Amino acid sequence: MRTRTKWAVVGVLAVTIAAATGCSATPEKTSSKGAAQQTGQQVETLMPTTVYVADQNGFVIPFNIKMEQTKQVAQATLQHMIAGGVGEASLVGTGFRNLLPEGSQIRGISVNDGVAKVDFTKEVNALKNGEDEQAMVDAVVWSLTGLENINKVQFMVEGHIQNTLKNGTPVGDPISRANGINLQMTSNLSPSQTTALTLYFEGKSNDANFAYLVPVTRMVPKQAEQNMIELTMAELAKGPNTAALEPVISPDLKLSKSDVKDKVATLDFASELAAKGVNPNRLVNTIALSVAANAAVDKVKFTVGEKAPTSDGLDLSQPVLIPQTINEQKL
């Protein structure tokens, strides 16, 4: 019988909520055993990075792991995303899987003007279908654009730019997060008639032992005058379009008004944020991440009737920083 792993996913609860006067998530230095311990020998240090992996339902999700300290963060991050490679240890017991094909190697990475050119070996073309191929591209793009100074990713294979990968996934031009993730298309509308919204919903492991946040890009009909925050809240209230994900926001939660000033979004609601049985921390995380994904904001201030809401164990008297750590791996 296999022994239980000590790795666990704290999932949604691991997303850090910090007030404007508090601390945001920053790289940590720990020993390879989790906490720094002086043993008379040199202490190895770990650093956090976020890799995008696939869950049991095929959704591409962020997963914050610890890896050895390095100055080559982009390359090390990708190496932890190769199936059968060094990153597999971080996924034990989660049901998640890495999306770069087994045997893939990174021949080189260069970053210029915000574009990371990543040269893969031919094994990157080994995936059997377009769905897995698109998921792999999404995972690489979202992992690298989460790093400092990278806004787009240019794929290369064996030193050459290809228009598409083997199964037809377009990679000829640099790709940004604007292309979306876990894309949900509207069949009766052309792309020019739609607006892309990235929303966060809740996923659960098959054994329901832990929950985690899943980003989904939903294409909605374009409006003449669009308020991205109002659109975001309206789509969150509708919930996910699949039974594999769960809503976090009650459809009864109504946004009275919103405003953005100095990259702080103020959201005023008509009633208390968390309905009975809803985790307020989880709700705040979902709203903050979704709003930040669709509007250029760094913080979100929550009010109810223009007053700071009351919530057990959660201080919302000050604007909340957008969480930097999502779905964290913990010892």
TrEMBL record:
SMART domains recorded: Germane
Segment forming the signal sequence: 1-25
Residue stretches making up the GerMN domain: 74-166, 229-313
Pfam families given in the database record: Germane
Presence of the UniProt keyword Aminoacyl-tRNA synthetase in the record: no
UniProt KW Signal keyword: yes
Record keywords, A-Z: Signal
Protein name: GerMN domain-containing protein
Organism whose genome encodes this protein: Tumebacillus algifaecis
Organism lineage: Bacteria, Bacillati, Bacillota, Bacilli, Bacillales
